[in-house]
Amino acid sequence: MAASLTDLFSRFLRYGLVGVLATAAHYALLVALVELMQAPAWIASGLGAALGAQVAFFGNRRFTFDHRGALGPAWLKFQGTALIGALVGMAIVAGGVALAWHYLIAQIVATLTGLVLTFLINRRWTFG
Predict the structure, then answer these.
(1) How confident is the model at residue 2 (pLDDT cuts 50, 70, 90)?
(2) Using CA atoms in the order 21, 119, 72, 69, what is the torsion angle rounded to 10 degrees?
């Protein structure tokens, strides 16, 4: 039991590290689209999430889960999981903005929610 909790914690930390890189890509695109192109924050959040998902997939495939299975099926599952995370995130950002939160505060809440949600799904289903 202790070994499984240690492994779970270790993988979650690795997932978080990969997530930092993916989130940096996500936020860079989000801010660029909102600030430079005047895109709605919720749309920019979704596009940023799509970019971040690609960074996250390749980092998590090897570094977090050491997955050596077929690339295609794992990529499709990961994209499905990322889509769920993106839709939840977009809803949180839209709701936060409607409540007069700054879009980046809403995005931080969305990111933290998505971190836990997608880790659990990817651990069991995508790379399990």
Answers:
(1) low
(2) 110
